[in-house]
Predict the 3D structure of the following.
Amino acid sequence: MNVIYILWLRQIKRYLRSKPRIIASLGQPLLFLIALGFGFGPIFQRAGQGNYIQFLAPGVIGMTILFTAIFSGIELIWDRQFGFLKETLVAPVPRIVIMIGRTIGGATVALIQGFIVVLICLAAGFRVTNFSALPWAILFMILIAVMFTALGTAIASVLSDFQGFQLVMNFLVMPIFFLSGALFPLTNLPKLLDLATTIDPLSYGVDGLRSALVGIGHFGMPLDVLVLCVIGAALLGAGGYLFSKIQL
Amino acid sequence: MIRVANLVKKYGDFTAVNDISFDVAEGEIFAFLGPNGAGKTTTIKILTTLLKPTSGQVELDGLNPAVEHNEARKRFGIVFQDPSLDEELTAYENMDFHGVLYKVPAKIRAKRIEQLLTLFELWERRNDQVKQFSGGMKRRLEIARGLLHTPKIVFLDEPTLGLDPQTRNQLWTHVKKLNGEERVTVFMTTHYMEEAERVAHRIAIIDHGKIVAQGSAEQLKAQTGAETLEQAFLALTGSTIRQEDASALDQMRNMARMFRGRRR
């Protein structure tokens, strides 16, 4: 327990000490919110879909958690390159415990970033319509954070340096974001896009968040929770397994 | 305390460690010397559970590090060849993190951290982030950290790399003291022959993955008819300079340096 706590604490301390990173990572959601939110707002309205900021904000929150969580997981590569990973791997602690501590730490950081973006969204004019569903919204944020931190850890366990990182960003993380329904409604899509959005785990995260915060849902919250839990558990398992196989 | 028999480690076609055998007795200081790329660090990684051997037997205090990892890991402390500190954390936090991982009880932990940081003259700087430390200070901190959980075996992989003579002297004095008073077994590598001669009870010389000679400094000198250990070493391993490819790690460090440079 102490071990998990100290691993968690380390991630939090590292996060709080890198102020530039906190600020830099908020630039992107802000840009999406302003450029897309206000830019597409009038068209969205005319198409009869209502207020675009209301629609977009849960997507931007999901995006922030996705990126921060993946990065937190991938920080493992950094630890490997700068040697600190060795220090944790020769310690008399089962690898799975180290993986759990790291994941909880990374997910917490992603969650904090997510909450900061919630505040930014509120400042940009986003309004929560259903306060009683707020605990659900938090649950969805946690599920997204844990799932993608585990995915980041799994990827980082296989990559030994940053050369494959661009590949991961362009062919995995970006598609997960753009195909998730964070930016557009999932109804009446072309067949192929419809399929892609259905297999994208983030679709269910964003959908759940949107249902909870503004009452617009596509899959329905029970299905969202189910899918996120199953895929999250699978990714944790995969991440734990790959992490335990690391040799230096 | 350490027993290695017919150990082999292959990376694809390349044989890093080729059928080596040696024993280290309890309370002994054992030096493992060899040119760059000879297989020293690979051997240490296998002994410290970071790598699995291709074949051969390894025993650490009667335990097999490839199978009983956690029991084996409690027995040793290690100072790695490359840095392994978290630079964002302070010196104290690095020590504390280590203490928690090794389950050193809180009270003893605080006391030992103070003792060790004082001994290595870092106590005044305990609340500074490690990234503000000089190379020598980082090295001292790593050594202090490796000793925190009072291990029975200490692995020192080129611990004095980049240290000034004062710090080197202090380090070896401390290692000898630890070995004398607490009977800690020490397994060390170094490129400074006079260090090996000064502290090691026994020396093994490894080259191209094979042990080419073993014995005390006197025996090695007598065997080669050399006057100093350095001459004996050169006689055994030849004087050609070894080529090593830049590892992914080195490339990464260069990249990090570039990034840091740009930020400034």
Notes: Chain A has a mean pLDDT of 92.
